[in-house]
Write a structure and sequence with these properties.
One of its GO terms (molecular function) is nucleic acid binding. The protein has 503 residues and is mainly α. It has 23 helices and 6 strands. α1 runs parallel beside α4. Bound molecules: zinc ion (ZN).
């Protein structure tokens, strides 16, 4: 625990810890949804202990958020763009986000537990200690005392942020009429010059009984406004229920860190939309597909149209058909290449292509019996659109390296039938990758023995490993003189012919 003034440097070790946890080499192999899961688990575990007892400096909170954001979209490289805004990502999944936690709000919500304990005067030694030192007999929530020890200061800051979420609930009416915060945060006595000595001990139930107020029995003069205000406040008393603060953010009135967090998030949400997002996360599909759909729904998949708009691509014309702007709908449905995939899995109905609103198109297709096939179609279309270029370049460079090193017999496997067809069965001269395809075809004519065959990605663990390593790397091409350490065991099991059943 920290004593004395809290400084940024006191907490910089949290940043170091997070950095080292996120920088582990294994994380280089994660996909975006994998990184979301990891970032959430790391951010939810490492700073938690300190967040429960200290109000972290704002700069530390912003740094934690920044690291999370960068890690999700870029991993450990500098490659990759932020597809969806941070204010969306940090919404709950039900509200269209990914449920990534905001550091400041998480910190406040956790300290809220201490606010609650202190307010409820729970029977914990630290509560007694702070109570004796700073509060005498007043309510913590309404006490104005701001400065004290670091822990007191931390709890006080969290209190200010959460204050509106607490409500003073009247039960038995035993609260002081003058000195308790029953009508507003400030007790009645604050708006008066004095309280008559004969009145000072009065409780609510002494003035409100038989279902009405008896203000005329008071010795203390009240203004007309005040009398009006009070008489509009109708109480329902019950001797079995205590007067106390309750928490508005939960159904049972009890404060919990998670209800505190949701409450803070709702308060922050400046643009609430009532669109339901649960369906995405309820889909019976792999996480990577749900993530893709989530990106599609936020119109945030990196199509050329979107990249062009953000000045990240020179052109917005689809590189496959060269005929249309590559919007999300074009990329996933209307491009002839995409239409071929939909046709192959049975989506041939004209209605399927008539809807030009992306949201409505998704909505009408993710319901009903064809939903799973539709979701799979989205995935395969997105994959097919990205895979051709990467795969062709890999084959081209691979063959060149093999040629330079003097190999004379080569077995080359690809998991993309489309790519193999392009090379082996020919292609239009207008194809956007015609140059590289022709280069490969020319190389095949050399005086050496090259066999191109199809293999399933999950049947080739070494290739899968290298592909993931490559996708997390900045450099266009990386040549390994000898296998990376982590690949050796995979190669060994390949050499031993260990069988991998298809998942
Ligand atoms: Zn196209």
């Amino acid at each position: 625990m920290i004593t004395g003034r809290v400084k940024k440097v006191d907490f910089s070790f949290i940043i170091d810890k997070l950095n080292s946890r996120l920088a582990s080499w294994k994380n280089k192999l994660l996909s975006k949804p994998g990184r979301v899961t990891l970032a959430k688990s790391v951010m939810n575990s490492i700073p938690t202990y300190y967040m429960q007892i200290s109000w972290l400096p704002s700069s530390i909170c912003s740094q934690i958020d920044m690291m999370t954001r960068k890690f999700i979209w870029k991993g450990n490289s500098n490659k990759g763009i932020h597809l969806v805004g941070w204010n969306v990502v940090t919404q709950s999944k039900e509200d269209g986000g990914l449920g990534v936690r905001l550091a400041r709000e998480a910190n406040t919500a956790m300290l809220g537990k201490l606010v609650w304990d202190l307010q409820q005067q729970s029977d914990k030694p630290w509560v007694h200690m702070l109570q004796d030192k700073y509060l005498d007999s007043s309510h913590f929530l309404t006490s104005k005392r701001k400065f004290g020890s670091p822990i007191w200061n931390s709890i006080s800051k969290a209190k200010l942020a959460l204050l509106d979420g607490f409500h003073y609930r009247i039960g038995d009416g035993n609260s002081s009429f003058w000195y308790s915060p029953w009508i507003s945060r400030d007790p009645l006595c604050k708006s008066l010059d004095y309280v008559a000595i004969q009145d000072s001990q009065l409780r609510l139930k002494d003035i409100f009984f038989n279902d009405s107020w008896h203000l005329n029995q008071l010795y203390t003069p009240l203004t007309t406004d005040m009398k009006n205000l009070i008489s509009h406040y109708h109480l329902i008393l019950n001797i079995g229920v205590l007067d106390c603060f309750t928490w508005n953010g939960s159904l049972d009135g009890v404060y919990t860190a998670s209800s505190g967090y949701s409450w803070l998030l709702k308060k922050k949400q400046h643009n609430p939309n009532n669109k339901s997002w649960k369906w995405i996360w309820n889909l019976r599909a792999p996480e990577k597909i749900k993530f893709l759909i989530w990106c599609i729904c936020h119109n945030s998949i990196p199509t050329l149209d979107m990249l062009h708009h953000r000045h990240l691509a020179q052109d917005n014309i689809c590189s496959r058909c060269l005929a249309n702007v590559e919007t999300t709908l074009h990329c996933l449905r209307d491009c002839p290449d995409a239409a071929r995939i939909w046709d192959a899995i049975g989506f041939r109905n004209g209605d399927f292509y008539s809807q030009m609103n992306l949201d409505l198109w998704l909505n009408s297709n993710v319901k009903g019996s064809g939903a799973h096939l539709f979701v799979a179609g989205l995935w395969w279309n997105w994959r097919a659109r990205n895979i051709v270029c990467v795969e062709l370049m890999a084959i081209y460079h691979g063959l060149r390296i093999a040629r330079d090193l003097g190999f004379s017999s080569i077995l080359c496997y690809s998991d993309s039938q489309t790519v193999l067809d392009l090379i082996l069965k020919g292609h239009s001269i207008y194809h956007c990758y015609a140059a590289v395809i022709t280069n490969i075809q020319d190389m095949l004519k050399f005086n050496w023995n090259v066999t191109l065959s199809h293999s399933l990605r999950e049947g080739n663990f070494s290739a899968d490993f290298l592909a993931k390593l490559g996708s997390a790397n900045d450099t266009k091409i990386k040549i390994w003189e000898s296998p990376p350490e982590a690949l050796k065991s995979i190669l060994l099991s390949d050499a031993l012919r260990v069988l991998h059943p298809r998942a």
